[in-house]
Amino acid sequence: MLAYDFGLQHPMNPERLHLTARLLGDSGLLDLDGVRVVAPSVASDEDLATVHSEDYIRAVRDLSWNPDRSDAAHGIGTEDNPAFSGMHEASARLAGGSLDAADALMSGRAVRAVNFGGGMHHAARSRASGFCIYNDAAASIQRLLDRGAQRVLYVDVDAHHGDGTESIFWDDPRVLTISLHETGMSLFPGTGFANEIGGPGAEGSAVNVALPTTAGDAALLRAFHAVVPQLAGAFAPDVVVSQHGCDSHREDPLTNLRVSIDAQHILMLAVRDLADRLCGGRWIATGGGGYALASVVPRSWTLLVAVAAGAPMGPATPVPAAWRDYVLERHGVDAPPLMGDGADTWWRSWEIGYDPDDELDRTVMATRKAVFPLHGLDPWFD
Predict the structure, then answer these.
(1) Got the DSSP string for 185-246?
(2) pTM of full prediction above 0.90
(3) 87 located within any domain
(4) How many domains, the chain?
(5) Which domain holds residue 257?
(6) What residues are annotated to the active site?
(7) Average pLDDT for residues 343-356, to the nearest whole number?
(8) Rounded Cα gap, residues 121 and 143, in angstroms
């Protein structure tokens, strides 16, 4: 997975995956009963063509051999998405990991699966975007549908709008995409507002909560619990696929949401609980954005694996000394001593009431008004 590398000056540094894998090992999570580590396969062109156009796949292949060129029509060769040697195979391997996860769930070999190298949610059917070449999350959703799932819930809590995944399933009522993200008024890709609800015949299948720019923990948690459980229950999915980009963190250099790892962990638990309650636990979790590569990303995604594994690890768990020593030697920085940030994650339940003077509440209510009635829900009370 470390071959997915846009270069030394690019924010999407594969070191974040290396440090995550090492922290997982040092934490003992990979040695637990019931946990298997599976090398990701490389998705075939046929696999990729279920969610990407054939001309786009050809363009990625071509630029993998000619990385000095660019293809503006397909979004490759830009500052965000520079071409690099071996780009096709590296990107197809990230997608293969999520496809393998879908196969494992549908065959019954697993109930939960994590691909922390995945979550490339900006890639659209015929265009690269936002550091994403192939959309592994979309590919896994399509594989689930092709293997017998009737309805798939996709929950995206990355700081950026999950626009690529949404666009690929814009007209498909079998897929409910819910994205909670920093408002497009202040952050790439500039989309993801409450009135974006899905295409003709699939109205209500796209749900967007455009969070205030510096929302913080309490606002994010209030918004999630005011929207996601209600819609998930009405939709009744067979499988949950989630994207856990941790770039919402207050230390992330590219975003502004000011969220703690403690709040991210609460969302992981909430998504797991939805899967347990609604679809027999069937849950695929992916990574995504996250650019504080030593201080944030490894801790967040190690907690994600711990949640999926049912391990007794939480924000108050000490970070292994061996891993902290490794980070100090490799990067010259002191890693945090705990898995979390020690944050106060108290939040107001929606049942307390709607405050029209609160920017967050206005955002949430706009989303509820736009989509709740389409699912038989009352935006004021459900």
Answers:
(1) TTSTT----TT---STT-TTSEEEEEE-TT-HHHHHHHHHHHHHHHHHHHH--SEEEEE---
(2) yes
(3) yes
(4) 1
(5) 15-375
(6) 122
(7) 94
(8) 16
